[in-house]
């Protein structure tokens, strides 16, 4: 089992199994991200974040699906960051992708979420598609700079795939929380086959997000993450070609890293929201004149209670950042094993990810609320927009109950038990 208490560097492969890392059978991801790779893509993400920040409040107030604002994600290369370099992709690692999501979330939580889901959705090529088909899927995605949304929400009844005489299927059903489908180019869909030789199989496939029979219902009306394009989608006799199929979902350990990736992505999303709120609040606080009339300080930035508040939030944020970076490197180590991933090593990694989810979720909801204590009542004006961070954090942190992540960590600590595999674990 991988030692999940170690923190490998780009040159440290001592925790990797040479038999699986020298020529991994399952994917193009090898080793862990080097510092220059992380630095390069972090700089790219910072530039894109600066562009998104210019009108993020205006776009949030409109709450419509993003369109042209997705262009910087495409033109910068961020949408193909994790794809094979040999086919024209960025050839980067997951640790780098998580950092990119975090940086974007500091400016725009909605588009950071869309990019995170895209990374996880496209990764299904490596985890579910046969080796002979991966190049075709990757080439089309890279050349088209496609953004993948998804209709895989497991709390809804499964969509139905009905075999047809041409060797494909017809897709029918409704999926809520289909993030990115209405604004993206392709939709990753999971559905159960309702008849024939494959009856009962759950199949992952990719279709045109705007194909005939795909209806975007536009019913996303949440408190936050208002541009995450997370509305419901209804599928009516949508044609699914045999060439659209990635493969069946069978719970094989390497393929289940997909759900681990999105949970760690959530942790980085929440961390980025906290960092963005603290940075925005600092600007407001430093610019505030005078001080509270009972204070001995001349300005709010010199008030000991204000300084204590920031000292607490900044310190906690630094701790969460360190944990997120450590676990990001561990994720690269596990992914690099390819077919060497085991249920035990994958489960141990999931515990580390749960720790990130617990502390980042708590930090985000707390920090994005408490910053108002330092910025004052004037910072609650709609034109200031400081509320955006709290609304985004509060909305997305309800994706799945963080209390169950605390239970996972506690149960493992006390008895060594691992949670049963699910689409939330």
Descriptive report:
The chain has 425 residues and is of the alpha+beta class. The chain has 3 domains: 129 residues, Butyryl-Coa Dehydrogenase, subunit A, domain 1 (Orthogonal Bundle), CATH 1.10.540.10; 98 residues, Beta Barrel (Butyryl-CoA Dehydrogenase, subunit A, domain 2); 163 residues, Butyryl-CoA Dehydrogenase, subunit A, domain 3 (Up-down Bundle), CATH 1.20.140.10. Helices cover 48% and strands 11% of the residues. The chain is built from 12 helices and 8 strands. Strands 1, 2, 3, 4, 5, 6, 7 and 8 form an 8-stranded mixed beta sheet that branches. A hairpin with a 5-residue loop joins β2 and β3. α2 packs parallel to α5, α6 runs antiparallel to α8 and α10 packs across α12. The two termini are 19 Å apart.
Query: Total strand count, please?
Result: 8
Helix content: 40-55%
Q: So how many helices?
A: 12
Shape: globular
Main sheet attributes: strand count, strand direction, barrel closure: 8 strands, mixed
* Residue-averaged pLDDT: 92
Give the CATH superfamily of the largest domain: Butyryl-CoA Dehydrogenase, subunit A, domain 3
Ends apart, CA distance between termini: 19 Å
Low-confidence stretches: 1-24
How much strand?
A: 5-15%
Query: Radius of gyration over alpha carbons?
Result: 22 Å
Q: What structural class do the secondary elements suggest?
A: alpha+beta
């Amino acid at each position: 089992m991988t030692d999940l208490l170690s923190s490998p560097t780009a040159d440290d492969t001592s925790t990797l199994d040479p038999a699986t890392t020298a020529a991994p059978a399952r994917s193009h991801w090898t080793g862990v991200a080097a510092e220059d790779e992380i630095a390069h893509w972090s700089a790219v993400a910072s530039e894109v974040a600066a562009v998104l920040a210019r009108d993020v409040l205006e776009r949030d107030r409109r709450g419509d699906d993003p369109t042209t604002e997705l262009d910087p994600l495409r033109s910068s290369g961020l949408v193909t960051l994790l794809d094979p370099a040999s086919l024209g992709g960025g050839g980067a690692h997951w640790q780098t992708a998580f950092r990119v999501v975090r940086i974007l979330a500091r400016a725009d939580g909605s588009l950071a979420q869309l990019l995170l889901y895209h990374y996880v959705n496209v990764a299904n090529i490596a985890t579910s598609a046969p080796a002979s088909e991966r190049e075709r899927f990757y080439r089309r995605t890279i050349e088209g700079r496609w953004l993948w949304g998804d209709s895989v929400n497991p709390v809804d009844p499964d969509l139905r795939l009905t075999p047809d005489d041409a060797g494909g299927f017809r897709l029918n059903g409704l999926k809520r929380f289909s993030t990115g489908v209405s604004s993206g180019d392709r939709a990753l869909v999971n559905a159960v086959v309702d008849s024939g030789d494959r009856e009962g199989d759950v199949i992952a496939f990719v279709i045109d997000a705007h194909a005939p029979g795909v209806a975007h219902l536009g019913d996303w009306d949440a408190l936050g993450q208002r541009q995450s394009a997370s509305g419901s989608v209804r599928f009516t006799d949508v044609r699914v070609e045999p060439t659209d199929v990635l493969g069946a979902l069978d719970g094989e350990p390497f393929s289940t890293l997909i759900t681990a990736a999105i949970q760690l992505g959530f942790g980085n999303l929440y961390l980025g929201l906290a960092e963005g709120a603290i940075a925005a609040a600092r600007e407001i606080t430093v610019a505030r004149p005078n001080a509270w009339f009972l204070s001995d300080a001349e300005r709010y930035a010199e008030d000991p209670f204000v300084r204590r508040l920031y000292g607490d939030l900044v310190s906690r944020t630094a701790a969460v950042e360190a944990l997120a970076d450590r676990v990001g490197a561990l994720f690269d180590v596990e992914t690099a094993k390819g077919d060497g991933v085991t249920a035990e090593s994958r489960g141990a990694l999931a515990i580390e990810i749960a720790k990130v989810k617990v502390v980042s979720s708590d930090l985000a909801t707390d920090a994005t609320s408490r910053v108002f204590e330092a910025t004052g009542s004037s910072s609650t004006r709609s034109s200031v927009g400081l509320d955006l961070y709290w609304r985004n954090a509060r909305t997305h942190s309800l994706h799945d109950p963080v209390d169950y992540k605390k239970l996972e960590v506690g149960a493992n600590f006390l008895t060594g038990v691992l949670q049963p595999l699910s689409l939330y674990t």
